[in-house]
TrEMBL record:
Subcellular location: Cytoplasm, Cytosol; Peroxisome matrix
UniProt xrefs under InterPro entries: PEX7, WD40/YVTN_repeat-like_dom_sf, WD40_PAC1, WD40_repeat_CS, WD40_repeat_dom_sf, WD40_rpt
Matches recorded under Pfam families: WD40
Molecular function via GO: enzyme binding; peroxisome matrix targeting signal-2 binding; protein homodimerization activity
Signal peptide (from-to): none
Segments for region (Disordered): 19-49
Biased composition (Basic and acidic residues): 32-49
Gene3D superfamilies in alphabetical order: YVTN repeat-like/Quinoprotein amine dehydrogenase (2.130.10.10)
Protein's name according to its UniProt entry: Peroxin-7
Amino acid sequence: PGPLPPLSRNWSHCRCGCPGKGEGRRGGGSREGGRVGDERGARRRRADAADPRSPWLRCGVLPLSAGAPGLRHLPVLRDRGFDWNDGLFDVTWSENNEHVLITCSGDGSLQLWDTAEATGPLQVFKEHTQEVYSVDWSQTRGEQLVVSGSWDQTAKLWDPTVGKSLCTFRGHEGVIYSTIWSPHIPGCFASTSGDQTLRVWDVKTSGVKIVIPAHQAEILSCDWCKYNENLLVTGAVDCSLRGWDLRNIRQPVFELLGHAYAIRRVKFSPFHASLLASCSYDFTVRFWNFSKPNPLLETVEHHTEFTCGLDLSLHSPTQVADCAWDETVKIYNPDCLMIPP
């Protein structure tokens, strides 16, 4: 069996599946193949779910601020929070309206918010029968399409102007951890799952185009290369990152090793074709250039608990943001991005 994650200082499972503060225990849910990755076990601990006094309701708050240190060329906005009655797992901005976003939550619903309005959600979409773990807004302008992925093993297609889903995609045999639109091909998205596969879907046919048995472990994250419509990367509980060329899926085009625990998020750079970043339950963020003989460029370890969120700025080629279960967001410029790859 693989290694277990280290003990945190004060972990107990809150009702949204993340370790809240409480008595110490190992975090991350159940263990598949000896490693952390399957978070379903933790989500089933729904203590105090109906109690409005529950301290865990703070996990359903969506705070918004553009005034964080290190964010340049952005107006400073006052903090604003929107409450929801269950844990929020993912968020995606509209490509057409800077004030509109969608979140997804542990009660199986998606929430449409207008940040210019200090009220509740504009609309709630409730069709998934289990937790919704991933949501992504199409990057094709003029196309109001949102895709969601759930632990009910389905992905759903939504138009926020319509009160119900447009289509349901079935085929995964495990919980869906990630759904993400192609930045190149309209109506095409990828998903990863606890069934150890990466799948590529076409909304025009309502079916799967490609199924890739990408890892022998649960796959928690994937991303499309911004410079190659055929290249995706996956990150899994087996601690590896693998690149896949959709024109030849028999074997990965690259494999990156170095993380000690499950990889929670992976992102390609929007500025460099062969550069990507990953974050892991080993508390680190790692930067890679898969075209180099020694692909690991830098390891950043500045969190005290699991690192679970990561993105590379679309506006600055050197700026990165990440977040962790230590309740902090870090915005920084890693050394490896200060030097042209």
